[in-house]
Amino acid sequence: MAYKIFILVLGLFVTFSVARAENDLIDVLRDFQEFKTLLQLIQEANLTDTLRGKGPFTVFAPVDRAFTELPEDAWKSFKDVNLLRQVMSFHVVPGNVTSSELRNNVLPSSAEGQKIRINVYQNATGGKVLTANGCPITKIDAKASNGVIHVMSEVMFPLPGPSITETLSRMQNFSFLLTALQKADLAGTLSGDDTYTFFAPTNEAFDKLPPVYLEMLLTTKMALSDLLEFHMFYDVSFRPAFYDGLKIRSLQGPLLTFNVKGPPGPTAKYMVNNATFLGLQQPASNGVIHAIDQVMISPEP
Prior knowledge:
By secondary structure, this protein is an alpha+beta fold. It contains eleven helices and 15 strands. It is 27% helix and 30% strand. A hairpin with a 7-residue loop joins strand 12 (255-261) and strand 13 (269-272).
């Protein structure tokens, strides 16, 4: 049996169920009534007994709607039980990690040893937005006898975790960008320990530039470096960090201006300057990549 309480968290009112002391993590998830898909997949991944065990464990729990918004290819991949187990285990952290420990850029390790990046952002009204690998955490600290649950509106996927440069090399449609980073001596910068948010124009985005301008970039190292540094800034900002009218200073110096249309989430349209975000955000060991459909030109000084 569970009962409801209201609590002011991170600038927003959230509601969650607080379990009786004898209820384990599986019992508490069942009490919520919004985790039917998660519970089914946990069972198919043979993790139910684990989450009924002594623990303690911290579960980042996607709601049913998060699974319905997944692409068909993701659902097909779940037929591979080993992959499904990896995805489900990625949402489980050994230990009792409460919200007080979920600080910006903290990197707890999942049950399989992969890092999960926690970020805390400020929204347009001054409230706080909490994310795990860029996925919003909407409710926190649902206690169970063997751990704690944080509710998520999206599903996280485990990634190999290479640097931004290496991640780009594994992605399709960024060969021209990789060449440009090498020519500008920035490939090493995006492979180091400092963290960055990088806006990555696709090959088609570069094709839209006038050929003469493109040739000038490839033969003028300083101009190319300035252009690419206009596409990045220090720190890690996933999509929930961006709101309409937000301005962030680029590594080059001029400001980047963000435009967001629609409610926050997978269906919202995100823009930075004249460029539209494409597809999913791509976490890396030292930051995050946002694919964009235009090359952004820095304003004249």
